[in-house]
Amino acid sequence: MINVAILGFGTVGSGVAEVLTTNGALIDQRVGDKIRLKYIVDIRDFPDSPYRDLFEKDFSVVEADPEVDVVVETIGGCKIALEFTTRALKAGKSVVTSNKELVATHGYELLQLAKEHGCNYLFEASVGGGIPVLRPMSNCLASNQIEEVTGILNGTTNYILTRMIQAGLSFDQALKEAQANGYAEQDPTADVDGHDACRKTCILAALAFGQQIYPEQVPTQGIRNVTLEDVAYADSCGYKIKLLGRCMQTQEGKVCAFTAPHLVEGKNPLAGVEDVFNAIAIHGNAVGDVMFYGPGAGKLPTASAVVADIIDLAKDPNRDRRNAWGPGAADLVVSPDGLTSRWYVRAQMSMERARAAFQDLQPLARSGAPVGEVAFLTGAMTEPELRQRLQDVKTGSVLRVLA
Amino acid sequence: MINVAILGFGTVGSGVAEVLTTNGALIDQRVGDKIRLKYIVDIRDFPDSPYRDLFEKDFSVVEADPEVDVVVETIGGCKIALEFTTRALKAGKSVVTSNKELVATHGYELLQLAKEHGCNYLFEASVGGGIPVLRPMSNCLASNQIEEVTGILNGTTNYILTRMIQAGLSFDQALKEAQANGYAEQDPTADVDGHDACRKTCILAALAFGQQIYPEQVPTQGIRNVTLEDVAYADSCGYKIKLLGRCMQTQEGKVCAFTAPHLVEGKNPLAGVEDVFNAIAIHGNAVGDVMFYGPGAGKLPTASAVVADIIDLAKDPNRDRRNAWGPGAADLVVSPDGLTSRWYVRAQMSMERARAAFQDLQPLARSGAPVGEVAFLTGAMTEPELRQRLQDVKTGSVLRVLA
Asked: Strand, helix or coil at B146?
């Protein structure tokens, strides 16, 4: 018998209880043992819940119960979640989580703590929701040197961009619609300003390259400034605008990681990822390009990944999963300033002046463009070189083009 | 030290040696032990190979060497490969393979044999080449009841269909081009008639539903009869023609599995899978739809998956991977005759007669269609019902539409 305690009965936590119940017989058969949900820790009351007998307000009860093998942390954030995770690991209980903020910020220390106490800290659900991606990258691509990871990592922003592209809604209109449909929070900052995608980029980078990458080391730009004009220009040349989290290893063994909206060519499989779906493309030196696609959020998809981690633990409770990484370092992460790419520019200038500044450019057109507005794709160059050529120019949008 | 022997130094076998060499330092670090390639068994001579000192013509030497932990079978087919795999497993050596024919035909008995002898039989590379799909399905989706698997499983046929769609080549022209580019064998039967996709469908079905499914139980149709006319009609209504391997669980607990060309709607992510790429879409009752995409064949991609299996074994040599399934049964697999779907029909008949036979139809048009040719999409019905309505009609093509 494997006993599980869920901490936090919100969307994901209640989804975990539901999956453990609905698929319980199947799961027990696959594990060859019974998985029992023993506690749900939440300070709120749920008198009508079918799980009402399992609720417990005091985490100390779970912490002190030697029967509890696995703690599911679906509280979120870095306060109580950090405290309870630390205490659970110190008590020798493995912890499974969907909390990307905690993993991105305290992953190294929590993985070390798990190792010291002979238990595991697993977080498949923290990136890509229900999409299997972290374990496949660590295990199925273990024969590869991972060279680059590129992901559509946030469903809210991908929904907003999809609606702008397909329905011609403005950013504000699309955000309102996303909020009305429950795809965006009332305070949408973490999503639309790219912080959520940034955290997931940190986790992917840490697993791909073996060292902790902190969110504050990753330059992050959201989608607030993407306009319908940009969407129209991108469309005119066969591109879609997507918010990407990217990380890659440099030739010097450093890591370049950043989050920003990009122009993605129509034939790239990432361009076809619509609505709230996510996708993560990984380039390995043996396999080439692979991509993992699916629902990046949502109650049951996220619970699917959490419960898969529970099953993994239940099958071999004492096996060291070795999904650890080394400590971070201030000089590990380098700025994307050194990364050359083509660029999309929308600006107030004449095409003559643009051509003088960028010999090699591809002019773009849209119907209804006001006099004085130009837009074009440049040749490959770094961002500092681009900014220098645009000195004294009033730019509307400057976006990187994914190679 | 983990000692490996490769059986068969063809495309995949030599790729395995190359990946073990190129990424050796990284792999040893990930494993925490040294993986050594000790033998390459092949009846041919390779006097100029950098591995020339490792060649061995007699498998008995490998079989009798207690140092050999892992045998890589990249011979292919069901003769020598079956004999050597059986002998290796009986000697307690785990076997890793990319041989879909052997797994689809003898998977159950070989998995049983591995279990009896305390070793493992792993075959991630047998489906989807370098794409991580079997282990993610078994592990990361273990919390789900898998309801349906749909895959573009053969790179050769996908290349041919892509060239027909994009360049307007006929099937024969596209096949010749594929052969010239090394994407198709001189005898292309296994690919173009769907046998290769059928074997992979069997393996996916066995893992998804837990029982051996034999190739002869899976109705299989290739792409030889797909014409440019069909491609044009499909394009006119926003569909692509793709060869799909499909399997699903029926409400009665049976398995419906088949391989056939389908019309796939443009917005389905499978429609965007082009050239020699493969993709496998899985529907689970918790996660919903996920898709795995990447190179479905090729020397290094396939070797990537083989070596990942070796690494998995090297990390925990004695762990039971539990990727077993139960025995097959004659009454386990049901015909797709019971499966309703929309259909694409191209036939010699009048549109009036078509409308009389199918009240609910969507007529299709193409430029240059000869008098008397009609094409249309039907409403949802089973194939027997469709055939009955088409009695006495001279049909050119009848293809299922993927829902």
From this structure: strand
Tell me, what amino acid is at A208?
Answer: A
C-alpha A187/C-alpha A65 separation (Å) is: 38
Q: Is B140 close to A142, i.e. CB distance below 8 A?
A: no
Burial of A179 (0-12, 13-18, 19+ CB in 10 A): middle
pLDDT digits (tens, 9 = 90+) for A238-261: 999 999 999 999 999 999 999 999
Among B7-16, B128-137, B316-325, B348-357, which is the least confidently predicted range? B316-325
The whole model's pTM is what?
Answer: 0.97
Distances (CA, A) of A6 to A85, A110, B232: 12, 18, 54
Contact B27, B85 (CB under 8 A): no
Asked whether the beta carbons of B130 and A286 are under 8 A apart, the reply is yes
**A290 exposure class (CB count in 10 Å sphere: 0-12, 13-18, 19+):** buried
How far B389 CA lies from chain A's nearest CA (Å)?
37
Q: Could A319 and B322 be called an inter-chain contact, meaning their C-beta atoms sit closer than 8 Å?
A: no
Q: What tokens appear for B366 in the block?
A: 């193409």
Q: Find the catalytic residue in B200, B242, B267, B315.
A: B200
User: pLDDT category, A130, cuts 50, 70, 90?
Assistant: very high
Instruction: Give chain A positions within 8 Å (CB) of B269.
Output: 269, 272-273, 293
* Global ipTM: 0.96
- Reduced to 3 states (helix: H, G, I; strand: E, B; else coil), residue A32 is coil
Tokens describing residue A137:
């990258």
The length of chain A, given as a count of residues: 403
Instruction: Give the CA count within 13 Å in the CB-facing half-sphere of A245.
Output: 29
Residue A14: its H or E element = helix A11-22
Q: At what angle do helices B80-90 and B100-116 cross, to 10 degrees?
A: 20
R_g of chain B computed on alpha carbons: 23
Helix (H, G, I), strand (E, B) or coil at A48: coil
Q: Which distant-in-sequence residues (6+ apart) come within 8 Å of A200 by Cβ?
A: A100, A104, A126, A127, A128, A151, A153, A154, A245
CB B278 within 8 A of CB B154: yes
Cβ-defined contact of B310 to A143 (cutoff 8 Å): yes
Q: Let me know if A87 is exposed, middle or buried by CB neighbors in 10 A (0-12, 13-18, 19+).
A: middle
DSSP H or E segment with residue B46: none
B200 classed as catalytic: yes
SS3 B221: coil
Which residues 6+ apart lie within 8 Å of B244 measured at CB?
Answer: B150, B151, B152, B153, B197, B259, B260, B261, B262, B264, B270, B402
Residue A199 pLDDT grade (very low, low, confident, very high; cuts 50, 70, 90): very high
| Strand residue runs (E) in B318-368 | 333-334, 343-348, 361-364
Handedness of CA B85, B86, B87, B88 (dihedral sign): positive
CA–CA gap between residue A68 and residue A2 (Å, rounded): 7
Q: State in Å, rounded, how far the first CA of chain B is from the last one.
A: 51
Which is nearest to B4 in space by CA: B62, B53, B61, B46? Answer: B62
* Angle of the A195-209 helix axis to the A100-116 helix axis, nearest 10: 30
CB contact under 8 A, A130 and B300: no
Query: Could you tell me how many CB contacts below 8 A there are between chain A and chain B?
Result: 173
A279 residue type, one letter: A
Largest interatomic CA distance in chain B: 75
8 A C-beta contact, residue B279 and residue A279: no
3-state secondary structure of A108: helix
Tell me the per-residue pLDDT of B50-91, one tens digit each, with 9 for 90 and over.
999 999 999 999 999 999 999 999 999 999 999 999 999 999
